[in-house]
Structures are given as structure tokens and as C-alpha cells.
């Protein structure tokens, strides 16, 4: 039983570190002097939102809130499409 609680705690810590790294990276790229790096900042911010929505969907599905989980999945799909659009704009200038 203790191994399972440590696993939950370590997953929460790692998830928090990923969230913090993506958010700090987004802020750093959005506010630097090069305007072309704004695409990278928006990509980081959208990835933060995507990971957050997927985690929220899984948590809501486990709690039995199917409608909220479907809303989170829809928002995650929209965020994923936005991430693809931002990266295509950055790399190919489309």
C-alpha cells in the first residue's frame, strides 16, 4: 500500500515540474525581444493547456463525471490542433 502512495506522490511532483517548466518556458519566450520566438512561447503555453486538459479528463472519467471528461477531451483536441498550427507556422511559415 505504501508503494502505491509513493507512486501517486512522485507522479504529482513530476507533473508539477512539467507544468512549471512549460509555463516558465512560455513566459520566457513570450517576453524576450525577438518577436519570432513568440510562436515557441505560444506552443509551450498550448502544450501546458493540452497536458492539463488530458489529465483533467482522466481524473473526471475516474470520478464518474463523463460529461466533464468529454468536455476536457474536446478542449484537449482543440488545443492539440492549435499546437499543430503553431508549430507548422513556426517551422514552415504556412
- Work out the count of structural domains: 1
State the secondary-structure class: mainly alpha
Overall morphology: flat
End-to-end distance: 52 Å
What's the alpha carbon Rg, rounded to whole Å? 16 Å
Strand composition percent: under 5%
Q: Which spans have pLDDT < 50 for at least 5 consecutive residues?
A: none
Helix content: over 70%
Care to count the β-strands?
0
Average pLDDT reading? 89
Number of helices: 3
Give the helices and strands, then pairings.
Blueprint: H1 2-30, H2 38-63, H3 66-92
Features:
94 residues; mainly alpha; 3 helices; flat; DUF4181 domain-containing protein; membrane
Report on the structure:
With 94 residues, the protein is an all-alpha fold. The protein has one domain. It contains three helices and no strands. The chain has helices at residues 2-30, 38-63, 66-92. Helix 1 packs antiparallel against helix 2 (38-63) and helix 2 packs antiparallel against helix 3 (66-92). The chain is flat, with a radius of gyration of 16 Å. 16% of the residues are buried. The mean pLDDT is 89.
Task: Provide a quick synopsis of the model.
The chain is mainly alpha-helical.
Amino acid at each position: 500500500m505504501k508503494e502505491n502512495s509513493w507512486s501517486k506522490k512522485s507522479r504529482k511532483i513530476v507533473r508539477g515540474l512539467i507544468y512549471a517548466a512549460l509555463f516558465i518556458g512560455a513566459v520566457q519566450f513570450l517576453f524576450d525581444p525577438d518577436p519570432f520566438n513568440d510562436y515557441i512561447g505560444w506552443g509551450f503555453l498550448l502544450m501546458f493547456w493540452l497536458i492539463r486538459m488530458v489529465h483533467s479528463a482522466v481524473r473526471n472519467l475516474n470520478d464518474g463525471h463523463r460529461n466533464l471528461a468529454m468536455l476536457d477531451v474536446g478542449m484537449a483536441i482543440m488545443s492539440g490542433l492549435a499546437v499543430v498550427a503553431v508549430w507548422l507556422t513556426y517551422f514552415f511559415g504556412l
